[in-house]
Design brief:
The chain has a single domain, classed as Rhodopsin 7-helix transmembrane proteins (Rhopdopsin 7-helix transmembrane proteins, Up-down Bundle), CATH 1.20.1070.10. It is 76% helix and 3% strand. Pfam families: 7tm_4 (PF13853).
Length: 316
C-alpha cells in the first residue's frame, strides 16, 4: 500500500544556474560563446593536423583524437543547456537523459585513456628515443586509440545501464545542468545500487591506474630531461609535458567531483561550477595549450592559413 503514493518519474527537470529568466538568457548566451570557442578551436586543430603532412607524428595523432573527444564531450550537455536557457524550458526526457549519461561517461573515460596514451608516447619518445619508432608505430597508435574509444563506450554502457536499470520516483529535479550519476542516484528508487557501486569501483580503479601511469611516465620524463646537458632541450621537453600534466589534473579533479560525489548532498554552487569546469575547460584549454605552446603546430597553422584563400580562389 505504501507503493501507491510513490509517483514514478517520466521525465526530468535540469536545474540550471538561475531561476530568473533574464539571467537564464544571459547564461545561455555566455555558454553559446564558450561553446563556439571550444568548437572552432578544436575543429581548427583537427583541420591543421589532418591537412599538414609534417604533423603526422604519433603525438599529433593522439592530439587529433583528443580534439575529437573534446568536441564530442562538450557537444552533449552544452547545446541542450543553451537551448533550455534560451527557451526557459528545463525538461529532458528519460531516454534523453540516459543518452546524455552514456555519451558523457564514454567520452570522459575515452579522454582519460587517450591522455594516458599521450603520456606513454612522450615517455617512450624522451626516455627511449632509440626504440621509439619501433614501439610507437602507426599500428600501435591506431590500436591504442581504438582501445581508448572502445573501453570508454563499454564503461559508459555499464554505468548507464546500472543507473537506469530501475525506476525513478519522488523528485524529478536534477540539480545540475546535465544528467550525472550522483543526481540520478539520489532520485532512483530501485535497489540496483548493487550494479552501480561495482561499476563505480571499476571506474575509480581505471582512472587511478591511468593517473598512476601518467605520473609514473612524467617522473621518468622529468628525471631524463634534468639529465639533458643543454637548457634549450630541457625547456623544449618541459614545454610539451607540463601543459599535458596541467590539463590532465584539471580534468581528473573536476571529473572526480562530478561522478564520485556522494548522492545525498544537494550540489552547492561550487559543485555546479566544477561541473562547468569539467565540461568546458578541457575543450577550451587543450587546443590553446597544445597548439599555441607547440612550435610545429604554429608553423602548421601558418602554412594552412595562406593555403585557405588559395583553395577558395581555385574553386571559384
Amino acid at each position: 500500500s505504501s507503493m501507491v503514493n510513490v509517483t514514478l518519474v517520466t521525465g526530468f527537470l535540469l536545474l540550471g544556474f538561475f531561476e530568473d529568466p533574464s539571467w537564464q538568457t544571459l547564461c545561455g548566451m555566455l555558454f553559446l560563446l564558450l561553446y563556439l570557442v571550444a568548437l572552432m578551436s578544436n575543429l581548427l586543430t583537427i583541420t591543421v593536423l589532418s591537412l599538414d603532412q609534417k604533423l603526422q607524428a604519433p603525438m599529433y595523432f593522439f592530439l587529433k583524437n583528443l580534439s575529437l573527444l573534446d568536441i564530442s564531450l562538450v557537444s552533449i550537455p552544452i547545446p541542450k543547456f543553451i537551448i533550455n536557457s534560451l527557451l526557459h524550458d528545463n525538461s529532458i526526457s528519460i531516454p534523453g537523459c540516459a543518452f546524455q549519461l552514456l555519451l558523457m561517461t564514454s567520452f570522459s573515460a575515452g579522454e582519460i585513456f587517450i591522455l594516458t596514451a599521450m603520456s606513454y608516447d612522450r615517455y617512450v619518445a624522451i626516455c627511449c628515443p632509440l626504440i621509439y619508432e619501433a614501439i610507437v608505430n602507426s599500428e600501435a597508435c591506431v590500436l591504442m586509440a581504438g582501445v581508448s574509444w572502445a573501453l570508454g563506450l563499454l564503461f559508459g554502457a555499464v554505468y548507464t545501464a546500472g543507473t537506469f536499470s530501475g525506476p525513478f520516483c519522488g523528485s524529478s529535479v536534477i540539480s545540475e545542468f546535465f544528467c550525472n550519476v550522483p543526481s540520478l542516484l539520489k532520485i532512483s528508487c530501485s535497489d540496483t545500487l548493487l550494479v552501480i557501486y561495482p561499476s563505480l569501483g571499476i571506474g575509480v580503479c581505471l582512472s587511478l591506474s591511468c593517473f598512476i601511469c601518467i605520473v609514473f611516465s612524467y617522473i621518468h620524463i622529468l628525471s631524463t630531461v634534468l639529465r639533458i646537458p643543454s637548457l634549450k632541450s630541457q625547456s623544449k621537453a618541459f614545454a610539451t609535458c607540463l601543459p599535458h600534466l596541467v590539463v590532465f589534473s584539471i580534468f581528473m579533479l573536476s571529473a572526480f567531483t562530478v561522478y564520485l560525489r556522494l548522492p545525498s548532498d544537494a550540489p552547492s554552487v561550487t559543485d555546479r561550477l566544477l561541473s562547468v569546469t569539467y565540461t568546458m575547460l578541457p575543450p577550451i584549454l587543450n587546443p590553446v595549450i597544445y597548439t599555441l605552446r607547440n612550435r610545429d603546430m604554429k608553423q602548421g597553422l601558418r602554412r594552412l592559413l595562406p593555403a585557405l584563400p588559395a583553395c577558395q580562389a581555385s574553386t571559384a
